[in-house]
Amino acid sequence: MSERVAAIDCGTNSIRLLVADRDGDRLTDLVRTMEIVRLGEGVDRTGMLAPQAIERTRKALTGYAQRIRALGAGRVRMVATSASRDAGNAAEFRDMVLDVLGAPPEVITGDEEAALSFAGAVGGLPADLAAPYLVVDIGGGSTEFVVGAGSAEAAVSVDIGCVRMTERYLHSDPPAEAEIAAAREHVTEVVDGALAAVSAHRARTLIGLAGTVTTIAGIALGLPEYDSTRIHHSRMDRAQVARIGTELLAQTRAQRRAIPVMHPGRADVIGAGALILGTVLERAGFDGLVASEHDILDGIALSV
């Protein structure tokens, strides 16, 4: 018997909603949507959630709560990740969510985030993709690395993400060569540590998650608009990712916003995300990767 559930993933850059009918480990989507709220704006520098960021998130969450009630979801789980882990005023954010949603957010650890991402990503993979898998989830504030076959066997969460690296290093428009070099040096050091921590050399397939990966996949496919059905389980080789990353870092924010598959709220940070993705491919030694539209959001829905 199926059960209607709702899952909310509130990260550093975006807040996403999935309402689905769950039957065992199968999900049938009713609503899957995303808004860029940039909850983590300035957190790396100030250690606090900005009032305007909390307000943007409140507005998005109010709309989500209305849709959840209209669709009659019996159970709801909201997970908050990197930004709300790092913030000194997380209690203010928690109180806002409790008021709007009627339930508090779960501020999960990086390891919990990684396990949920893995569970969502590996469900329904094409049969020709060999295990073990390395699942890499590039978020706004953090990136998760998980290795496993049927379940997560080793996981680590590290503080590199597209928002955090942009705010820390990529200040010019477009970024200066020295800024890119400094970001690349830091990202490479962190990625090397993460790959070693999860023994990534064991993995045979790389699966990439989240908006950076799926947007780059849409660019690689030459899509005239964002199409999740075309992007899901599409494949890119290392040379494609490197070329697109170089192009994105050389473009202005206005030029990136003009890309057909680009969400306007992602245009200013996707250069850093592409740098992280390219570094993972290079340092892990994979020839390419598979992009997945199923990620932590699906893992949350399955865990409700």
Automatic annotation (TrEMBL):
Task: Tell me a Gene Ontology molecular-function term this record carries.
Answer: pyrophosphatase activity
Q: What region holds the Ppx/GppA phosphatase N-terminal domain?
A: 19-282
Q: Which UniProt keywords apply?
A: Hydrolase
- SUPFAM superfamilies named among the record's database cross-references: Actin-like ATPase domain (SSF53067)
What domain of life does the UniProt record list for this protein's source? Bacteria
Name this polypeptide is given:
Hydrolase
